[in-house]
Every structure is written in C-alpha cells, then in structure tokens.
C-alpha cells in the first residue's frame, strides 16, 4: 500500500508538476474552464451566503441546488476548494486532484485485496485502475472522480453484505447514500452495474444466495436513497421543469454506435476528449474509454479464455454492453453514446488482469493473439483517420498516440515471451501513463492564459443584483460563462440543464437559438436586451479584447404594463416571421390565458399590431419602474410607486418556489411574457418582497431524517446480532 501511494504521488509529480511550472495551474480548456471553474466559483459564493437557494448568475436566474447538485454542490473536494480564496484556486484544484487520485488508488487496492488478489497484484492493479484511460480523460471533467471513488466504496460494501460480514447492511446503506449524494446521475449507471455484478456473484458459488441477503440489500439501497431525499426532491423538482440542453433518446437512431471507435477505446490509450482531433464528426467525444495503460484487455481476455467462472462471464457481458447500443441502458435517455459507467468495466478488467498475474502462468499465446487483434483495430482506425483527413497525418498528437500504442504492444509482447521482466513491464506502464497525461494536459491547456487575461479586462460584479449584463463574443467558445466566472448576473450561460420555460422563451422570441448547453440566442436583438433589463454590454472579440458599453435601451429591473395580450394570441403571431416578438412583448404584456381574468382588471387589452419604434416603447416602459431593486440568494425586493393599478414585471424565471408579499401582505406571482414574474400592484407606493425556497427541500429534510433514524435502527440490529454471535 505504501509503495502504491508513493508511486501514485511520483506519477502525479512527474505528470502534473511540469505543467504547473509551465502554466502556473492545471486549468484546462473548454468545459473545464467554462463550467468546472465557473461552477466552483459560483458554489463558493453561494455557500458563503448561508442560504444557497437562488443563483442570479445562472441563466436568467436558477435554483442553485437543482442546477449544481450534478457538478459541484455535493463534492467534498469542491468544499475543500471553497475554503481557499479565489486567488489560490489554481493551487487548491491541483491539491484536490492529487487527493482524488490517492483515494481512488487506496480504495481500488482495498477492493482487490478483498477479492483475494495478492498484495503485490493489488498494488499493481490499483495503479492500473487509478490511471486508466478513463481516469486520465476525466481530468477534463473535474467532477467525474467523485463517482469513481464512491463506486469503489459500494463495491467493497456489496462484498461485505454478500459475505455476511459485520456491519454489511450498514456499510451498504452508507455506500449507497454516498453514491447517490455525490452524483445522482452517475448513481444510475453505478446501481445498474452493481445489480448486474450482484447477479453474477450469486451464481459464482463463492457466496450463498438467500432471500434474506437479497432483502437486506434492497432495504439498504432504499434507505440509502431515502437519506438523500433532501437533495433528490429539490433536484427532481428542477428536473421536472427543465430540459437537457442537448438531450437525445437512449434509442435515438441517429446516435447509434460507431463500432470502430468503441473497439479503439478498449485497445488504445486516451489523450484527448474530442473525436474531431482524430475522426472529424466521429463519436469519440462520448466514448470515455476503459483502456488500462499498456496491458489493455490482454490479460483479462486470457483470464476469460482460461476460466468459465462468474468473473469471466461478467467481463464478456460488460464488453457486449460497452460496444453495442445496449450501452444506452446506463444513460437512461440522455445521450446513448456516453459511456460514463466505464469505471465499472475498468475494474472488472483490472480484477481479471490481477488474477492472471497472480496465477504466474505463461500468457504468451494469449498476448500474441491480443496484439494481433488490437493492432488490426488500430490500423483500421488509422486508415479511417487518413481517409477522413484526405490522407494527411492529423498532427503530432496523432503520431504520439500511435507511438504510445505500438510501444506498449511491443513491451507487452516482450514480457510475455520472457524477454522483459514484470518489473520493467511496470516501468513501461508508468511511462505510458505519464505520456498520456502529458499529451492530455498540454493539448487542453491552451485557453487558460486567455481566460486569465480576460478576467483582468472585465470588472468584477458586486454582491447585489441591480441589473443583468450581456457578454457577447465573436463566436468564441471561451466566453460562454464570462458572467458566471466574474460574478456578473448575465443573460448568457453555458450549462447542461435549461429551465423549460426559459428555453421556450428564448427559442420563441429570437427564432435563432443554439441550444447545446448555451442559453443564449445566436443573434443580437436590442429589443431582447431591453426586455431582459440588460444595462451593461461586454463585446469580446476572438482575440479576447473587451469593449464595455452601456445599453441605451436599458429598462431597470421591474417595469409596469398597462396593456396585455393573451398567450393564445401571442402563439398565433409566433409563427409569423415578420412579427418582432420581443418588441411585441415590450409593448404588451403576454399573460397566460388562465390568468387573464385576474390581470385584466389592472390593464386594458392591447393591440395585436406591432407597437411603434423601439425608442418610444422603451420610453413608455421607463415611465413606471421599480426603485431600490436588490437581489440575494433567497429572492429579491424592490420599491415601486405606481400612478394607478398596474402589473409589475420582473425578468426572473417563473418557478414554484417563489412567494411574494406587497407591503407584508401575501401576493400572487403570475407567469407572464412566457416565463417571467408578474405581480399585481395597486396605486401608490409599495414594498415588494419576493422569497425563494427550493420546492421539496423541507419534505426532503424530514425524509432524510427518517432515513438516518432507519440507519441507526439498522446499526442497532446488526450490533445486537453480532453480540449474539459472539
């Protein structure tokens, strides 16, 4: 174990330190920079409020728990990062990366030891698991390691329960809680994998099947999930009113299998999460390969050939699931090409490999056959790449990837023939791991410098939400979350989950909207800026130059209407491409048909003809606006002074968790302008206070408490049973 931890630290030092010294941090490009860093910063800000309910920096505003439970909120490693000041985040992320790898190595070692693997085999197997291609590719997604770590906890807990060891049921419950709490999405794939695993274990002959153990396992799973209710109920509420930005059905015919790419991910080291580097338009960006350095599938296939036990059959079944559309079972209607359960397959490969090494028998024939099979797949892949690139070699990264593969195959064959000792094969594995990490980090670190320069050019926002800002970039991927990164409430967000009403609003109002995680229209409309109370505009070109300017059509947050049209009337006009829909919404409030009878009392029915020019409409809306608008993590407040009974509208997404008072008297919030808040206000001066509390959180807390009580009862019963046995 000590050698494993030392070798893990040495590998990380050789792979990560040079990058840190060269660039000053481990911040990678694309999603890591736009989402991981931005989301950690937002989590830090929200947790510091003590009431992290509503994030003004996300979308046009969003439920914080529902939006960040998948990414950051439930990660102990993010909590560690939140303890550091923002200026030290680049160093704290490096520290938590090291901690994550150490945790993976330690728990993988513990599982392999429990499965009867020798100490040396467990250490080597744990190293292979810790630095598999899946783990290295997950550097790109900072939040992927937590699910891998708790998956290992669950593997150990399942074995304790199946073997009827002490505290098996309690350990199982705590492990399920950790799996679901840390990442509810990954928990789906993990629990499906564990169900398959348990079925094969019951038929192994190594553990005795009984309905009692089965019932204990089911009870442990249910109690573990129940303990997560305080998280799951708010998340469920958010999911019910949200849509995945780039969702695909798990049986979507156009997102079917690329077999060659899938096979490649089992044989070749991984260096970058993005197929366009190698196969333009391919599916590799979702493959999340399971390959382990140098050895690959070789010894696991040898094990499966020699044995006909539960582990061999489990490996075969998982390989079939991995390379066929059945993989979609683990994704449950998100994207069938995602293979984010590959850590499960990787552990089975590692266990087979470690047992084969412990047998200390010749593997010459098996390795030779594997080398031929893998080489044929890789050569076919190379031919495809060359064809797709007009027979031009894609670049140095492609050559390096090929070199890693063929050097690894050579080392494997030499070892199998007795020309190389196992110790030198392990050296080759370490060298391959460092090579993979180097290629991966160097390739994906190009944007971090641009981001640092950008943050120096954009001023930081304040704690109060006074208005939104519009960050516009020259189609640059880097700047999607510029507002979120710099603590500016912005109308531009790069996130995976979009509130359905906001999605409909933007798609309908702009008629030109790119929905892949980016909540922002492609085209610029001054009318949209006015409607969404945009005051400050940051124009960012492809070189990172920033031009700040005020929006001349700015209308403060909270403005009054005296005329309306109904939603059904608006929908009829939505199909007419000659109609300027944002301008129409500025001229007349769009009210839901069901609310017409109430809101019509304060307004007249407006004309369906287009209003006058934008200047006159904006001037009309500016006549009656809220003053002293202030937002916080639990809602907002504003002062208004209206000359007659009117309806005040705030560009805050409508959600069921909001409650409002006007001068301390409860008031109803209506949905208007497709997704915004509308509140009836009588003539005179008033104080409007709107509070937000995540729907389901109170009920979830009570259910979580019930789950904890059941866990304590379970612990007491197991303690009592253990005492009787003794």
Strands of the widest sheet, in order across it, are 15-16-22-18-19
Shape: globular
- Tell me the major beta sheet: 5 strands, antiparallel
Low-confidence stretches: 273-285
Q: How many E strands?
A: 22
Mean pLDDT: 85
- Helix share bin: 40-55%
Beta content comes to 5-15%
What does this structure look like?
- 53% of the residues lie in helices and 13% in strands.
- The protein has 726 residues and is an alpha+beta fold.
- The chain has a five-stranded antiparallel beta sheet, with no helix packed on it.
Quick overview of this protein structure:
The chain is of the alpha+beta class.
Topology of helices and strands:
Elements lengths: L1 H22 L7 H19 L4 E2 L6 E2 H10 L2 H7 L6 H26 L4 H12 L2 H5 L7 H18 L5 H15 L1 H19 L8 H17 L1 H12 L1 E3 L14 H9 L30 H9 L3 H14 L18 H18 L4 H25 L7 H21 L5 H22 L4 H10 L10 E6 L8 H4 L7 E2 L2 E3 H11 L2 E2 L3 E4 L4 H6 L2 E7 L5 E5 L8 E3 L1 E4 H8 L6 H7 L1 E3 L4 H4 L4 E2 L8 H8 L5 E6 L2 E8 L3 E8 L4 E5 L2 E3 L1 E4 L3 E6 L2 E9 L4 H29 L1
Parallel strand pairs: 4-9, 12-13, 12-14
Antiparallel strand pairs: 1-2, 3-6, 5-8, 7-8, 9-10, 11-17, 15-16, 16-22, 17-21, 18-19, 18-22, 20-21
């Amino acid at each position: 174990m000590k050698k494993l931890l030392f070798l893990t630290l040495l590998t990380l030092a050789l792979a990560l330190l040079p990058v840190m010294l060269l660039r000053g941090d481990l911040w990678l490009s694309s999603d890591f920079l736009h989402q991981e860093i931005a989301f950690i910063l937002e989590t830090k800000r929200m947790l510091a409020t003590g009431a992290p309910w509503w994030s003004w920096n996300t979308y046009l505003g969003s439920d914080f728990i529902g939006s960040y439970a998948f990414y950051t909120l439930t990660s102990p490693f993010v909590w560690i990062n939140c303890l550091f000041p923002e200026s030290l985040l680049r160093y704290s992320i490096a520290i938590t990366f090291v901690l994550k790898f150490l945790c993976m190595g330690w728990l993988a070692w513990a599982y392999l030891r429990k499965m009867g693997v020798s100490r040396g085999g467990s250490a080597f197997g744990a190293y292979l698991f810790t630095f598999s291609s899946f783990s290295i590719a997950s550097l790109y997604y900072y939040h992927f390691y937590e699910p891998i770590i708790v998956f290992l906890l669950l593997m150990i807990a399942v074995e304790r329960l199946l073997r009827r060891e002490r505290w098996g049921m309690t350990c199982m419950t705590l492990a399920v809680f950790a799996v679901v709490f840390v990442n509810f999405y990954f928990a789906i794939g993990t629990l499906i994998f564990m169900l398959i695993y348990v079925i094969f274990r019951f038929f192994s002959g190594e553990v005795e099947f009984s309905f009692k153990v089965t019932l204990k396992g089911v009870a442990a799973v249910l109690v573990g999930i129940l303990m997560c209710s305080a998280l799951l109920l708010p998340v469920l509420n958010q999911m019910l009113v949200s849509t995945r930005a780039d969702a695909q059905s798990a049986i979507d015919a156009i997102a079917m299998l690329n077999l060659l790419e899938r096979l490649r991910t089992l044989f070749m080291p991984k260096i970058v999460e993005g197929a366009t580097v190698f196969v333009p338009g391919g599916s590799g960006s979702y493959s999340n390969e399971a390959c382990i350095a140098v050895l690959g599938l070789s010894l696991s296939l040898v094990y499966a050939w020699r044995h006909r036990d539960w582990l061999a059959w489990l490996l075969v079944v998982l390989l079939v699931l991995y390379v066929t559309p059945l993989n979609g079972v683990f994704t449950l209607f998100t994207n069938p090409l995602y293979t984010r359960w590959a850590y499960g397959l990787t552990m089975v490969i590692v266990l087979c490999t470690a047992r084969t090494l412990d047998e200390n028998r010749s593997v010459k024939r098996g390795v030779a056959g594997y080398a031929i099979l893998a080489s044929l797949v890789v050569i076919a892949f190379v031919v495809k790449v060359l064809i797709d690139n007009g027979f031009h070699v894609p670049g140095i990264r492609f050559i390096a990837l090929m070199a890693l593969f063929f050097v690894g195959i050579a080392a494997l064959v030499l070892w199998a023939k007795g020309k190389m000792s196992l110790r030198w094969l392990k050296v080759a594995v370490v060298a391959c791991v460092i090579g993979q990490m180097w290629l991966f980090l160097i390739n994906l670190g190009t944007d971090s410098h641009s981001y640092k320069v950008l943050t120096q050019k954009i001023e930081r926002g304040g704690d109060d939400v006074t208005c939104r800002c519009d960050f516009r970039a020259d189609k640059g991927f880097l700047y999607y979350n510029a507002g979120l990164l710099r603590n500016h409430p912005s109308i531009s967000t790069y996130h995976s989950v979009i509130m359905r009403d906001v999605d409909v609003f933007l798609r309908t109002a702009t008629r030109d909207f790119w929905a892949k995680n980016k909540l922002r229209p492609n085209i610029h409309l001054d009318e949209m800026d006015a409607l969404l109370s945009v005051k400050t505009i940051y124009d960012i070109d492809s070189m990172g130059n920033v031009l700040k300017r005020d929006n001349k059509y700015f209308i403060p947050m909270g403005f009054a209407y005296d005329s309306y049209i109904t939603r059904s009337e608006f929908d009829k006009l939505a199909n007419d491409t000659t109609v300027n829909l944002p301008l129409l919404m500025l001229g007349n409030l769009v009210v839901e048909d069901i609310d017409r009878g109430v809101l019509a009392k304060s307004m007249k029915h407006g004309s369906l003809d287009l209003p006058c020019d934008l200047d006159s409409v904006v001037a009309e809306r500016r006549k009656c606006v809220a003053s002293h608008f202030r937002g916080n993590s639990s809602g907002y407040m504003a002062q208004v002074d209206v000359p007659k009974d009117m309806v005040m509208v705030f560009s805050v997404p409508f959600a069921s968790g909001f409650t409002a008072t006007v001068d301390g008297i409860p008031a109803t919030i209506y949905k208007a302008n497709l997704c915004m808040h509308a509140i009836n206000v009588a003539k005179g001066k008033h104080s409007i206070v709107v509070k937000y509390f995540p729907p389901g959180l109170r009920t979830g807390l009570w259910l979580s408490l019930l789950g904890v009580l059941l866990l304590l009862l379970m612990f007491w019963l197991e303690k009592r049973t253990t005492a009787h046995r003794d």
